[in-house]
Every structure is written in structure tokens, then in C-alpha cells.
Design goal:
It contains 14 helices and five strands. The chain has a five-stranded parallel sheet, with helices on both faces. The longest helix is centred in the last third of the chain and has 21 residues. This is DNA polymerase III subunit delta.
Length: 318
């Protein structure tokens, strides 16, 4: 497991609560993607359920239930049961929450506590979020929830209000360089700059070979696009049948580069365009996993949002 240098304060707060008189039953682990929140959740859950004198398993723990994206359909469920590859759903579904709640009827297996991890909680279906809310309102004795969230504002306000928040800060450039080197990857300055403090983003930059994509995005922001040449090149680099992981990596990269350009701009009009483009990219990233976008057109949609922020998009006056 990665040794995360940005977790010290979260551990302090967690352990203070763990040794206090009354442990809060709901926790939000909040911060941008790629900051190790799931690693923290798994390690914190193990500390929570462990009891003195009771041997704890090294692998999967019967008193830790972790929910994330499951199979997208019955065919996928069958493939999962057979140990075969399957396509993932684009959200955490009510079926998964109901299954977890049925397990809460029984007592924990090894001790008096049980931990529920939902990652990412902001990708629950609305019906799943409403079902989870009932458990948060009346949690079974000894049950604790750790909700990993990259975008807390997407959670129901009633869920947020029933949880205590642990915030995970972005990593510094030097911390990112160290983590990349520890993982056997070169600390590429371009990857570090584009990552905006996210180790996950830096890893994807390297693994997905996003340097050429970053170059095209930067050019679209700076120069616009004469015709659709630049957007066509972006689509080519993303790939005609890019999988969900690659599309999300490009969306994250685009948001990062637009945000960096906005911070660097001293032109109010240019900054406003960049902020608008960033807002639109955030919305597109939130919609892309569940909306029925044409895989061939999505790169052009990303490119058009970037072009709209370029100086060439300014209206002529005269």
C-alpha cells in the first residue's frame, strides 16, 4: 500500500475519534480523486473492527463491506461469479445498497464493529442514496460508514449532514515526484504539473501516455481551432473506441490544464472564459459515465469546450 504523505491530519482526527468516548457512525472522506482516500478507508476500517485478543485476517475481512462499481447487467454478474472479465456499471446501484443492508441484520463476525465503505459515494444512483440515508439515520449498533467522495456537493445534503468530514489535501509537486519514483516511474515534470496534486492523475498521465494529448489541449486553449483540425487530432489521440478509464483521464487532464491557465491569466475576460470552460468540463465529466454519449463525438465535445475558451473565440468588435 502507498505511504501517503498527505494523510497525517486525517489519521490524527480518526484516531482521536476512535479513542474517544463516542465514535461518530458516518464519515465522509473528501478530496479530489487520486489522493489515496480508498487506501485510508481500508486501513481505517481495519483499525475500527480490530479487537484485542481476536486474530484478524490478512486478506478480505468479514466485517468490512466495500461497495464500488459492480457488473453492469445480469450477464456481467454471471461472468463475475465465474471469475471471467465483465463490464462495470457506471454507478453504484440500489441493488448493492439493499444487499449490504441485508447483511446488517446479522451481528459482526469477529468482534462488535462492522465497517461499510462506499467508493465513490458520489456515484450512487439517486434511489441508492435514498436507501443509504435510512441506514445513516438509524445505523445498527456497531456499524460505521466510510463514504469516499471526490465531489461532496453531488451527495444528498441529508447524507452530508449525518457524516463527519475528513478532508484530504492535494499533494505537493515534490511529494508527487517521490511517489512516482517510488512506483518505478520517472517524475515527469509535465505529468506532475498536469496532475494538480493528484497522484492518481499523475499515474494516469504516465500510463495512458497523455503527453501528446496535453500538447493538443494546450494548443486548443491558446490558439483555438481553424476548422476542426485540432479537435480531430484530439479525437485521434483519445482513440475511436476509448474505454471509460481513458476518457475520464482525458477529462481530468483537460480540467487541470484549464484551471492552471485560468490561474495564470491576468486578463479578466480570458479568465472568465476559462472558468466557464472548466465548469462545463466538470459537468461533462459528471454526465459522461451515465449519459449515452456517442464515443466518437465525445472527444469533439471536449475539444469544442476548450476552443470556446481560446482567444480566437472572442467576438470581433469594430
Amino acid at each position: 500500500m502507498t505511504d501517503w504523505p498527505n494523510h497525517a491530519e486525517a489519521w490524527r482526527q480518526w484516531r482521536d475519534a476512535l479513542t474517544g468516548e463516542r465514535m461518530h457512525h458516518g464519515w465522509l472522506l473528501a478530496g479530489k480523486a487520486g489522493l489515496g482516500k480508498r487506501d485510508f478507508a481500508m486501513a481505517a476500517a481495519r483499525e475500527l473492527v480490530a479487537e484485542t485478543g481476536v486474530p484478524q485476517p490478512q486478506g478480505e475481512h468479514p466485517d468490512i463491506i466495500a461497495l464500488t462499481y459492480g457488473p453492469k447487467d445480469d450477464k456481467g454478474e454471471k461472468a463475475q461469479a465465474e471469475g471471467k472479465p465483465f463490464d462495470l456499471a457506471r454507478s453504484i446501484r440500489i441493488k448493492q445498497i439493499r444487499g449490504m443492508q441485508r447483511r446488517l441484520i446479522t451481528r459482526p463476525t469477529l468482534g462488535s464493529r462492522r465497517a461499510i465503505i462506499i467508493d465513490p459515494a458520489d456515484d450512487m444512483e439517486k434511489s441508492a442514496a435514498n436507501a443509504l440515508l435510512k441506514s445513516l439515520e438509524e445505523p445498527p449498533v456497531g456499524t460505521f460508514f466510510l463514504l469516499v467522495t471526490h465531489r461532496p456537493a453531488r451527495l444528498l445534503p441529508t447524507i452530508r449532514s449525518r457524516c463527519r468530514t475528513l478532508r484530504f489535501p492535494a499533494l505537493t509537486d515534490s511529494q508527487l515526484a517521490t511517489l512516482l519514483a517510488d512506483g518505478g516511474l520517472p517524475p515527469d515534470p509535465q505529468a506532475i504539473a498536469a496532475a494538480e496534486g493528484s497522484f492518481g492523475a499523475a499515474l494516469r498521465f504516465a500510463e495512458q501516455n497523455l503527453a501528446p494529448v496535453a500538447k493538443v489541449i494546450t494548443a486548443l486553449l491558446a490558439q483555438g481551432d481553424n476548422g476542426i483540425t485540432g479537435r480531430g487530432e484530439l479525437a485521434r489521440l483519445i482513440g475511436p473506441r476509448a474505454d471509460r478509464e481513458r476518457v475520464q483521464a482525458v477529462l481530468d487532464l483537460a480540467q487541470s490544464l484549464v484551471a492552471r491557465a485560468a490561474r495564470a491569466s491576468d486578463n479578466p475576460q480570458a479568465r472568465a472564459r476559462l472558468i466557464n470552460a472548466h465548469t462545463a468540463l466538470v459537468s461533462l465529466a459528471a454526465e459522461a459515465p451515465t449519459a449515452n454519449f456517442d464515443s466518437g463525438m465525445l472527444p469533439f465535445e471536449i475539444g469544442s469546450l476548450l476552443v470556446a475558451a481560446a482567444p480566437a473565440s472572442e467576438p470581433a468588435h469594430g
